[in-house]
Design a protein that fits this description.
heterodimer; A: mainly beta; six-stranded mixed β-sheet; 11 strands; 0% helix; B: mainly beta; globular
Chain lengths: 112, 113
């Protein structure tokens, strides 16, 4: 049961540029989380935004949430080669289900 | 150090040979879950556990079993593995169920021939 869908599937940029990834979802949510995965490794939590929040910052990360459009975006500013990874959004639907559903991810490549 | 550990990290086995992948967390988390990750399909939840002795099916539970006898451990059991269970498996835990930050293990790459 796919909930979040990231866009684009792949993104290639130069070091120092900003990277923007988008996530769209289908049903009302309690919160939305973003994770990063370096190749073949475990996912690492980046940021959680609640349904009543519109924007959240963490270091070079900025996440926005538009519940009317059922979408979120993750912006990485001043990207570095070390930011090369796959980025996933994850959501749980309102209504009590405890299933966290991940999108298929955006593969980001930052070229030195 | 707060962490989720999985063993083994890599496993090659044959069809039908029962195996167990262990998962342990040292953060006293109540919620634990198992995912499999396949190219083009993303992460899919296999089973989850809200607390000791409380487990429930995720989206792809067929062919898997779990148990939660202790808070820290959540083993994944494949009674009769088949080649379509070849995948990268992740265990995760959190304090606030799915509403909180998930801590993931390093993954177990399983190949069933």
């Amino acid at each position: 049961s796919q909930q979040g869908e990231e866009d684009p599937q792949a993104l290639s940029i130069q070091e120092g540029e900003n990277a923007t990834m988008n996530c769209s979802y289908k049903t009302s949510i309690n919160n939305l989380q973003w994770y990063r995965q370096n190749s073949g490794r475990g996912l690492v939590h980046l940021i959680l935004i609640r349904s009543n929040e519109r924007e959240k910052h963490s270091g070079r990360l900025r996440v926005t949430l538009d519940t009317s459009k059922k979408s979120s975006s993750l912006l990485i500013t001043a990207s570095r080669a070390a930011d090369t990874a796959s980025y996933f959004c994850a959501t749980i639907s309102q209504g009590g289900s405890e299933k966290l559903v991940f999108g298929k991810g955006t593969k980001l490549t930052v070229n030195p | 150090e707060a962490q989720v550990t999985q063993n083994p990290r890599y496993l090659i086995t044959v069809t039908g040979k029962k195996l167990t992948v262990t998962c342990s967390q040292n953060m006293n988390h109540e919620y634990m879950s198992w995912y499999r990750q396949d190219p083009g399909l993303g992460l899919r939840q296999i089973y989850y556990s809200m607390n000791v002795e409380v487990t429930d099916k995720g989206d792809v539970p067929e062919g898997y079993k779990v148990s939660r006898k202790e808070k820290r451990n959540f083993p994944l059991i494949l009674e009769s593995p088949s080649p379509n269970q070849t995948s990268l498996y992740f265990c995760a835990s959190s304090w606030g169920g799915t509403r909180g930050e998930q801590y993931f293990g390093p993954g177990t790459r399983l190949t069933v021939t």
